[in-house]
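Researcher: We plan to redesign the surface later, but first we want a full-length starting point. Tokens attached.
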């Protein structure tokens, strides 16, 4: 098996190859959290670029719990015409398109919600985030209902499925962590209790949509924090999720406090270690499952991708940043025109010499430029891209708060 081979998902849907555009923080919604023409145009370009599957960036089910003021939100207040246009754009080049449904929980910026709902009152150990309010039993029921509501809307407007975000420290991810989830009721304590929220969300969503609507889950292989959700627990939760009839699991890792998934790696070390930094963690999960597994994080060379698939370490290759540099790289990789996806980050200085989040923020700026102007500015300095993105967040938040007041 190689990246060129199709994959039939458990629900019978066929993906034309094994390359997936994983979720990125596109943050190109308007002040009312509706998709803009820039976002729609980006997905049209990505769809024609050869990948089998596209996944939107963080799409909150609750407007008061955003990851970013520029998030596209899918709820009854969404402009359904623009949401349908986004779904159509994603599918226009024969790619399947999923909405990544999420609830930011305690990782909601303080300017958006000073007291966000979380599993406990443990505050994020970073500036700019408020003291969370622990969810009540009724809060959990409402959160589950909002995931179901958003999934139904996604189906109605034409998306091929949803990916439920239970990674990177957002609400469903934090519920899994014994470090964050300190509850003593049925939502905390044992792993079965801590997994209850994501299991109930998945169960409710799966039963609310049609059988051919893809339901996937993004799960941390580990939080990489002492006392947090660990790798052995990830294997157990993956098995629980499979039992609920999902179509694949995407493996990543880390959270805002430990941003492992957002790292950029140096040129040192073997190619496979340098590229596929979650692959070894995924191996034990892959062995425990019969459904497909997707691994996201650092893949660049077709030889590394093909080796990972042929050796049964993963079924799908999740890729993000190369889609920013060249939206058509996947077709070139599949045809053999190129042997490696764009890897501009490999020439960046070490992360510890840069402002916190500079590399991630530079790529977010490039996404914004690609959407609004049609192409990124890869010659832009890291610091300029970083500062531009911080300003973009500030302006987007101001527009959002203004719109709320109106």
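Model: Full-length starting sequence:
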């Amino acid at each position: 098996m190689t990246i060129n081979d199709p994959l039939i998902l458990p629900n019978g849907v066929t993906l034309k190859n094994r390359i997936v555009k994983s979720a990125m923080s596109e943050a190109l919604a308007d002040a009312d959290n509706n998709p803009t023409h820039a976002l729609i145009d980006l997905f049209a370009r990505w769809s024609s670029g050869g990948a089998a599957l596209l996944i939107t960036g963080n799409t909150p089910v609750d407007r008061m719990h955003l990851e970013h003021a520029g998030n596209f939100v899918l709820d009854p207040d969404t402009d359904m015409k623009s949401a349908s246009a986004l779904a159509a754009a994603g599918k226009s080049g024969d790619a399947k398109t999923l909405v990544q449904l999420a609830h930011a929980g305690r990782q909601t910026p303080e300017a958006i919600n000073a007291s966000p709902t979380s599993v406990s009152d443990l505050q994020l150990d970073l500036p700019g985030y408020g003291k969370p309010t622990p969810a009540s039993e009724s809060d959990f029921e409402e959160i589950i209902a909002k995931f179901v509501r958003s999934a139904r809307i996604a189906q109605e407007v034409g998306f091929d499925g949803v990916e439920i975000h239970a990674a990177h420290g957002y609400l469903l991810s934090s519920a899994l962590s014994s470090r964050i989830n300190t509850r003593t009721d049925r939502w905390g304590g044992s792993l079965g209790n801590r997994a209850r929220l994501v299991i109930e969300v998945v169960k409710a969503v799966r039963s609310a949509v049609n059988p051919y609507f893809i339901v996937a889950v993004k799960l941390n292989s580990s939080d990489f924090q002492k006392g947090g959700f660990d790798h052995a627990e990830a294997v157990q939760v993956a098995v629980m999720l499979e039992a609920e009839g999902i179509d694949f699991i995407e493996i990543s890792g880390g959270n805002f406090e430990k941003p492992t998934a957002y790292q950029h790696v140096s040129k040192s070390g073997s190619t496979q270690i340098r590229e596929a930094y979650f692959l070894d963690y995924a191996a034990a999960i892959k062995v425990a499952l019969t459904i497909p597994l997707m691994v996201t994080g650092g893949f660049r060379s077709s030889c590394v991708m093909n080796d990972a698939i042929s050796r049964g370490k993963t079924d799908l290759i999740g890729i993000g940043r190369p889609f920013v540099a060249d939206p058509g790289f996947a077709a070139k990789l599949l045809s053999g025109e190129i042997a490696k996806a764009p890897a501009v980050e490999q020439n960046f200085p070490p992360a510890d010499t840069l402002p916190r989040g500079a590399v991630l923020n530079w790529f977010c700026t490039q996404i914004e430029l690609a959407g609004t102007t049609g192409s990124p500015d890869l010659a832009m300095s890291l610091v300029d891209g970083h500062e531009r993105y911080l300003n973009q967040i500030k302006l987007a938040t101001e527009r959002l708060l203004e719109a709320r007041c109106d």
